Amino acid sequence: MRIPLKPAILAMVLALSATAQAAETSVEQAGTIKTALERYLGPGPVSVSPAGEAYKIDIDIKAMLHRLEALGLAMEPASYTMMAVPQQDGTWHVTGGTLPPLTAKLNGQTTSIVANGQSFDGIFDPRIPAFTKSTGSYDSVSIGTISDKVAAQARQLSQGQQSTSAMATGDGVVDAKLTQGNAAFSQDVAFDARKGAPSRLSIKSGPTSDVTAVEGLHIRALADLWAFLVAHPSSEALKSSQGDLKSLLREALPVFQRWAQDASLERISMETPVGPFAMRAVKVHFDVRGLTSDGMASLAVTTDGLTVPADKLPSWANSLIPTSFDLHQSISGYHLDQAARAGVDALDLNAPQPLSPETLAKMKELLGPTDKMVVSVGPSRITSSTLDARFEGEVHLTLPSPAFTMTVQATGLDKAVQTIQAKAQQDPSASQVIAALMLVKGYGKTAPDGSMTWALVGDGTGAITVNGVPLPSGPTK
């Protein structure tokens, strides 16, 4: 669960690009820092003054975001202060305290953020440019929202810790890592009673963690692109300089080589209008490549100790409802590098459609044919109180129908049938479920250990076989 410790702190300090010198501070150097900061924040929101061995940097957050007022943003006045001390080795030691209370209104929604006991401490190297290391913490962060669609919602995080690191892997390119955790998290949502019966959603969890690793991040090119957008705040300004914009976009490609993220929550409970849900733990892994030639994205979700509201379900359902699952899937075989560059090359902000239909068609062609794209599944697993199913395979996105192979292995099918059979007298729908399970069993093969397997094959025409036996749907194989 990620909450930024400092708004735009990286953009603020990217401007400290002049070589740091551990010498007595001066008004002249303060002016140089201010001018550099304005490259990223625009004129007006920043002031810099000498403060002993440090420079005091004050950021007017309302003024910094004033360009968003055209989109309807109304920001309450707020300012943030940080200290930057030049070091002998050319780096800057940057520290900051608690973020001031923030309140913003946009599209009928009012959001307030209040932080307590917040701190930040980091070393910024302008030659990279990035924080080579930093740490941060807060005692609590509260986020409240009132809107036209949702009556109110509130989020609370406590005892947060954050650390970052970065190392140069090329000119203006870094590998970076961000780690953040909280001792507890909660969220309460009250829905608008005017649109029906009032209802609430409450989520609570114990410890949370989030680890993000980015490889090959083009941080200098992205900073230059941000500075360009600050210097060209209107559509007309961008149109008149779109040649420079396109050059900067090309420099930023492929943005990053790889982005991997692991998040987890423990002891989750949810109170919903249909009843309580709970999980002992949830883990999510996300992995994606940037705008590269070897496109790949994967997602894994693991849960343990899942419970659902039993009183809303048929009496036999508990034997089939998953108590845990471990799901893995990925997609590969697409190419974003040439498609992205073709889009940048053909971009025309002066045209009615900045990307013409012809350009979009070319980008789709460069992305690659869908029949070369592969969705991989597994190894994955789903368990209930009676069943334990494992499966894996792959799907080729062919036309007219996907071609696929999938292997499923399960234990406990007979136990599930017996458990549901015991409920059949009280619930006639149990007989229908038993019939479906027996049909599934009939297509399976029994292994020596008593487990059952199903080998599913789709040939891309719509025909599907299970263990070599055609299913009675679609074209016959």
Automatic annotation (TrEMBL):
<feature type="signal peptide">
    <location>
        <begin position="1"/>
        <end position="22"/>
    </location>
</feature>
<keyword id="KW-0732">Signal</keyword>
<protein>
    <recommendedName>
        <fullName>DUF2125 domain-containing protein</fullName>
    </recommendedName>
</protein>
